[in-house]
Amino acid sequence: MQTRELFVSAPGKVILHGEHSVVHGKVALAVSLNLRTYLRLQSTSSGEVRINLPNIDTFLSWEITALQPLLAGCKAEQGALKELDADLLKRLREFTGISDDSTDTRSMAVLAFLYMYLAVFADSLASITLSVWSELPTGAGLGSSAAYNVCLSAALLSAKGTISSPLTPQQESARWSKEEMELINRWAFMGEKIIHGNPSGVDNAVGTWGGFLRYHAGNITPLSWVPILRILLTNTKVPRSTKVLVSGVKDKINKFPSVMKPVLESVSAVSCTCEQTLTEMAAQGPSAEHYDILEELIDINQHHLNVMGVGHSSLDTLCRVTLAKGLHSKLTGAGGGGCGITLLRPETDTSVIQSTVEELKACGFDCWETSIGAPGIQQHSSAALSHDILKILNSY
């Protein structure tokens, strides 16, 4: 063990434009959300590995001596696995009793943790306690699992000494080098594979790098020097199945290819135009004209998504309520319910924001004022964390 205690955090994500473009090779823009997952890692001498997860009354722990046999035949190279080890994952499922078809949030979080812990510390298992807390709601399409996996990766790799602990005594928060963050991202992607099976890699990339990212045909490019934008984030709390929604879009494309393919091309063009506008805002400073363009693109993209069949009456309500206040909204993620974002201009009056939030809550929705474009994974000193977050992490 290289460290006694460390704190890390990673942001969630929203899709600004290009929902469902990811699976069709078109351009999508993803952006970090200034709601974060926090993780505290402590080294101990208990001979146990322990994890405290949010909204669970009791901690989970395992004796190191019970975990050690699971590594038999495990191909570790300098404390890291190049590929997802199916045999190790199978042994872990049998050890924990988590079935192959389990989608339970807690079970999958435990599986990802134990896999990464065993792979990182393969040559010498260490006694550690992890405590996790998140501002992100789970199952809402906001990248909560990716933020968790990015935090896990950074904390475990730092504790092992595979990557540095970049924080100096003079700093409250610090980030890793480009090369180290690439390693964090690869490990987080492995955790996402364990939880989701075949993820795109967008969510963990946003959690690692932060800011805005361009996704096109499997290639993820972080955009530099983009502005932080204020938004309202609304969770309609309407459950939806991403798998079913993606399948529905594919069926519609197969049924009406000459109609739907131009729609996808237009969605991709919206993403590219938005990227160009954000670049101009960063270079020239944001103007009223820039915000006008962003609002128009939001409206266009929302209409596209309705045409694609991933809208929902709850999202229509969100758009209607906010438009009556002069604000512009769209869904984010798979659609069919879930979450939506509303752009706030710099001059938007506080009273307008408050009345909008109250009206959306009266519709049965959860609503927060937050921002997009937040930093990615960071290591923190205890002084950098708010009293409330530190109290939660220390209370487990």
From TrEMBL:
State where it is primarily located: cytoplasm
TM region positions? 109-133
User: What subcellular locations does the record give?
Assistant: Cytoplasm
Keywords linked to the UniProt accession = ATP-binding, Cholesterol biosynthesis, Cholesterol metabolism, Cytoplasm, Kinase, Lipid biosynthesis, Lipid metabolism, Magnesium, Membrane, Nucleotide-binding, Steroid biosynthesis, Steroid metabolism, Sterol biosynthesis, Sterol metabolism, Transferase, Transmembrane, Transmembrane helix
Its recorded reaction(s) are: (R)-mevalonate + ATP = (R)-5-phosphomevalonate + ADP + H(+)
Q: Which residues form the GHMP kinase N-terminal domain?
A: 126-206
Q: Which GO terms describe its molecular function?
A: kinase activity
The protein's Enzyme Commission number: 2.7.1.36
Q: In which pathway does it act?
A: Isoprenoid biosynthesis; isopentenyl diphosphate biosynthesis via mevalonate pathway; isopentenyl diphosphate from (R)-mevalonate: step 1/3
The protein's role, per its UniProt record = Catalyzes the phosphorylation of mevalonate to mevalonate 5-phosphate, a key step in isoprenoid and cholesterol biosynthesis.
Q: Which family does it belong to?
A: Belongs to the GHMP kinase family. Mevalonate kinase subfamily.
Q: What is this protein called?
A: Mevalonate kinase
Could you tell me which species this protein originates from? Labeo rohita (Indian major carp)
